[in-house]
Amino acid sequence: MHTVINLQRYPLDRPDSEEWTALVNHAKAELARNGMFSLEGFILADHAALAARQIQPTMDGQSHTHKRSHNIYFKPDIPELAADHPALHKVETVSHTLCADQLADSLVTTIYEYPPLVDFLSAVMEKPALYVMADPLAKVNVMSYREGETLNWHFDRSEFTTTLMLQAPDAGGEFEYRSDLRTADNPNYEGVAELLQGRDPNVQKLRLSAGTLNVFRGKNTAHRVTPVRGQRERMVAVFSYYEKPGVMFTPEEQLGFYGRAV
């Protein structure tokens, strides 16, 4: 992996070194302060471009187009809210997805399964261990957004989300987020409504460059990707790790996200 990951800058392969400890502590501090951290240039530039080129033909010919109208919760309703509550305002998402079984021999999967990366993330997240997902569709995905397409406001189901930017668009496609919009004890529906109405002053924006690894707490942080502009699509890999081995989506979840189930 020395020719793919910038292990000189990010010494994942040296867990007993002072440099590794400093990197873990830096990531923890950023996570506590901002709800996320980014490792710019995690993948050397030539290999980010190579990964995108490897994937492009499959993305063009075999990806699943995910187009739906949804609320921020990806749920049909919230029992304690009226159907017309502004926190349930519908938004539109359009993206194109490749599943793990379409990426089996790709550079992206090799990076996802790299044990020092998994160990680094478990140290940052202060978990005894993390495991790659068992789901043959969901464990690693690549998402593509083309002209005018967006991943709209939502909360993630998992505690944290790991992404690797493979290709940045010509314009647009920025990552917008609102850290700690809700908590386990307070759904903050009025705050959610303000966000969806464009009245939240605490929304932040991040433009990720190709090769950047980004980790954020998406369960209580609302986030979206702004519409892509230009001919070059935004292409990002999404890595899923869990605290226990063998995690699978249900067939219903697979069908909803990927248009097929295995």
Offer a few descriptive terms.
single chain; 262 residues; alpha+beta; Jelly Rolls; seven-stranded antiparallel β-sheet; four-stranded antiparallel β-sheet; 15 strands
What do you see in this structure?
This protein is of the alpha+beta class and 262 residues long. The protein has one domain: Jelly Rolls, CATH 2.60.120. The protein has six helices and 15 strands. The strands form four sheets. It has a seven-stranded antiparallel beta sheet. Helix 1 crosses helix 4 (115-124). The protein starts with 17 loop residues before the first helix and ends with a helix.
How would you concisely characterize the structure shown here?
By secondary structure, the chain is α+β, with helices and mostly antiparallel strands. Helices cover 26% and strands 25% of the residues.
Order of secondary-structure elements:
HEHEEHHEEEEEEHEEEEEEH
Q: Could you tell me how far the N terminus lies from the C terminus, measured between alpha carbons in angstroms?
A: 31 Å
Low-confidence spans: pLDDT under 50, at least 5 residues?
A: none
The CATH superfamily name is: q2cbj1_9rhob like domain
